[in-house]
Design a protein that fits this description.
Layout (H helix, E strand, L loop, with lengths): L4 H9 L4 H20 L23 E2 L12 H28 L7 H27 L9 E2 L4 H5 L4 H29 L3 H31 L4 H12 L10 H6 L4 H9 L3
Parallel strand pairs: 1-2
Helix pairs in contact: 1-2, 1-3, 2-4, 3-4, 4-7, 6-7, 6-8, 8-10
The chain binds fe (ii) ion (FE2) (2 copies).
One fe (ii) ion binds next to α4 and α7.
Length: 271
């Protein structure tokens, strides 16, 4: 019998090689959607995810303060930026599969898994697009140091499904919507059209990821008869260290189902 979705999720999480992790993510997504289309969906099942996903020996993971700062005006600086985004995308692959395995005991409609598997597939695609950009610059994922601590949000919310949705898609991925337009403008200014195209694909698809997070967060609030805005504020204050940073991309956040009264009060906390 075909392995359950949760077992497949654990397989992705337990795979250290980055390219293989991304390949498996896409292959399992293709299997999931083929089975759904055939009317014989894969079981969600149960499987124990590792506390931390397996990762390659390289890149070296450093405290964010120790990661060398490079000027984005230089070619090296822009390559380092693409490397940093590749690291975020690989982490996002693990984050999506981790949700599937870790919260498999919470009964959810099949549409939830459709959204999450699609996002996991897209994160793997994003990692591939950035790997191609790095290769075109004579580099590769692992050639530069990367931020440690990316898994922190996942560990902090390992026992709280709603907390995970609040912090990962609705705070961290939403932050991506705020900062990506400036990144696209930077590469456009320097005529690096491959990076512009990759980042435009990422930007368009990340709106969907935030939207899936908001949609299923509201679903869970509704099921438990909790006020979504109050619950979101309480969970972000509990699990996310520090205030949210304006300026916010209000247009794309709105498109993703995040209204201003969700995030502005958390930014004001900095005040
Ligand atoms: Fe992504
Ligand atoms: Fe994403």
């Amino acid at each position: 019998m075909s392995p359950s979705l949760a077992r497949r999720a654990v397989e992705v999480l337990s795979t250290a090689d980055a390219a293989e992790k991304a390949r498996l993510s896409r292959a399992h997504a293709a299997d999931w959607f083929a089975a759904r289309a055939a009317g014989t969906p894969l079981p969600v099942g149960r499987a124990e995810p590792p506390l931390r996903p397996a990762r390659p020996d390289r890149p070296e993971l450093l405290d964010p303060r120790e990661v060398p700062k490079r000027r984005p005006g230089s070619v090296e600086g822009r390559t380092a930026l693409l490397h940093a985004v590749a690291h975020i995308e690989l982490n996002a692959v693990d984050l999506h599969w981790d949700v599937i395995a870790r919260f498999a005991h919470v009964p959810m409609p099949a549409g939830f898994y459709d959204d999450w598997v699609k996002a996991a597939d897209e994160e793997a695609k994003h990692f591939g697009l950035l790997s191609d950009c790095l290769a075109a610059r004579g580099s590769h994922y692992g050639a530069l140091p990367a931020h440690a601590g990316m898994w922190r949000a996942a560990e902090d919310t390992a026992g709280d499904f709603m907390g995970r949705l609040a912090v990962v898609p609705m705070v961290l991925e939403a932050r991506g919507l705020d900062v990506t337009p400036d990144m696209i403008a930077l590469f456009r200014k320097h005529g690096e059209t491959d990076a512009v195209a990759a980042l435009e694909t990422i930007y368009a698809e990340e709106v969907g990821h935030v939207a899936y997070g908001a949609k299923w967060f509201h679903f869970l609030c509704g099921r438990e008869d909790r006020d979504p805005k109050e619950t979101f504020h309480a969970l972000v204050r509990r699990y996310f260290k520090g205030a949210l940073k304006p300026p916010f991309n209000e247009e794309k956040r709105a498109e993703a189902g995040l209204p201003p009264d969700f995030y502005w009060p958390l930014a004001a906390d900095a005040g």
